[in-house]
Amino acid sequence: MAPYADPSASLTGGDPLDATITRAAAALAAAQRPDGHWVFELEADATIPAEYVLLRHYLGEPVDAVLEAKIGRYLRRIQSASHDGWALYHDGGFDVSASVKAYYALKMIGDDVQAPHMARARAAIQAAGGAAAVNVFTRIQLALFAAGPWDAVPTMPPELMLAPRWLPVHLSKTSYWARTVVVPLLVLAALKPVARNPRAIKVDELYTGRHVPLISKAAGLTPVWTAGFNALDRLLKAGDGLWPRRLRERAIKTCEAWVVERLNGLDGLGAIYPAMANSVMMFDALGYAPDHPVRAAARESVERLLVIRPEEDGDEAYCQPCVSPVWDTALAAHAMLEAGEEPAADAALAWLAPLQVLAVKGDWAEARPDVRPGGWAFQYRNDHYPDLDDTAVVVMAMDRARGRTGAACDAAIGRGVEWTAGLQSNDGGFAAFDADNSHHHLNNLPFADHGALLDPPTADVTARVVSMLAQLGEATDSQRMAAALRYLAAEQEAEGSWFGRWGVNYIYGTWSVLCALGAAGIGREQPIVAKAVDWLVRIQNTDGGWGESCDSYDLARTGHVTAPSTASQTAWALLGLMAVGEIGSAAVARGIGWLQTHQEADGLWGQEHYTGGGFPRVFYLRYHGYPKYFPLWAVARYRNLQRANAKRPEWGM
């Protein structure tokens, strides 16, 4: 067993625990922006920076050789040395879609296809079936450059926007991210524009000549629905040119108006890269001039996602999938409150308060028209799409500060709770953005091969809402709390964990639920908690930390997949255990010791492994803020509970 620092020594000796907290809090405070907020890099895989390069060439924009060289360095650095392609996360397995896009972008930048790194990538892609084996969105990307056939793309006519809402495939039944990504794509698929691509660069060498069918990554497919949707796709393809001209024009106008209404200023459509880029290409296809205010704003929103590192920091650049200022700020505020750094936390809450969405009834109102708005979004602005997870975390931070701020946040807290609780689904759970978005038959659509078309309730988001309600004093026998707790009980895995939808994976889900149960007064004496605690202790790594691979989402696997310990996953496990009274356990002491031992010279923690979830099996995230604020939060809570001789924390998180 690896040695670890004994955190109890800090309570009697030279106070190394206090030193750990002081150094981490100072470093986190130094990263706070002058206006009070935090925002850290949000990194995905090679796909987004590759698509950014391709977007510039699609539009025929002047080549920025300096920027492209920086992106090229980034893409070459993250190419795998083990499988020669590109993965969806650090040290992950080969992904053919990400690899085709990265290869295409590097070729567009000017890399010689005979260069060793390109030759290795090409061989790996061909061995995996070639460019014909890619997913739907990559097929669309290739088709837009005439580098692949439109026939290989499942048909989604824009007339869907005119269909009655009871139609089983109506877009209102999909998730927010699916709607914002797909609606502009409907226009592109109907018009089938061809990229300007001045040098006419294609990737013919990536095709093997073999047909490769789409392979869905969705869970729980139903053969009857799949067969029916495949038949419908064949029918739509056969009749694609038969739509009445006026109906097609009306459908495209409807898509255009839908996008413009939700364009979200300089934060972009849905405030996520795929939707933002698709909106730019849609406006281009519809004939909007580059300087048209709507198109110009959409294009600028994409540019704001770039991360450009100076020469001393790698001289690289990449494009983020979105930005996370509200999430980072709310979580960092909790960490600072735990560490006793109230002024920094208060500044963060003052920055968060005016970002509450109070006037816009977003798409969520389709299912809950009588609920008043009152949530927070993940990004700077995304008023049509606030989310329950951010809102609950912000509300809990504001509530923690009420002893100093008095009634200043009362109205914001009240509206946040009203909106969040108002989006409870009929099964008792809570989803990220919508209520009752559980139309699982849509995962059988050929277009939905990524398996992420929906936003059903999840254990982690439900837990966050339960934590919020419990922290605010709601009884466990209230109707909405009882329903949510029943949902969580039903979602527990046989070995005691919970699936984590928005973080990797079972550690994240179990941390979230244990915090909720602890806040609700449900302790170790209850089987639901005892099983979860035993599971967390059982999967602790021998070095005292916790780790879990993104491979745990693989449909061919079941349960937690062990990985090297990470700072964020160790902190989650610790916070979950402490939430249900395990402050004195050996597992907690060893975990705190791991964090102390692995604190870096700058006072924070490093972490290359991805522990954020975008879409299981498809898209993962490296939150650069996670190893900065979660470990501080865990170590500070440990100190506070030890010194208060308390069995569990006062707060929901």
Low-confidence stretches: 1-6, 8-13
User: What Rg is obtained from the alpha carbons, in whole angstroms?
Assistant: 25 Å
- Label the overall shape: globular
Average pLDDT, to the nearest integer?
93
**Helical segment count:** 23
Give the proportion of residues in helices.
40-55%
Question: Approximately how much beta-strand content do the residues carry?
Answer: under 5%
Number of strands: 5
Q: Tell me the strand order in the biggest sheet.
A: 1-5-4
* SSE run: HEHHHHHHHHHHEEHHHHHHHHHHHEEH
**First and last CA, distance:** 31 Å
Kindly name the structural category: mainly alpha
The major sheet is characterized as: 3 strands, antiparallel
Key words describing this protein structure:
mainly alpha, 653 residues
Could you give the topology of this structure?
Layout: H1 16-30, E1 42-43, H2 47-58, H3 65-77, H4 96-109, H5 116-127, H6 136-144, H7 176-191, H8 223-238, H9 245-261, H10 273-285, H11 293-303, E2 306-308, E3 317-319, H12 325-338, H13 342-352, H14 388-400, H15 402-405, H16 410-422, H17 459-471, H18 479-491, H19 506-519, H20 527-538, H21 567-579, H22 586-597, E4 612-615, E5 619-623, H23 626-644
Antiparallel strand pairs: 1-5, 2-3, 4-5
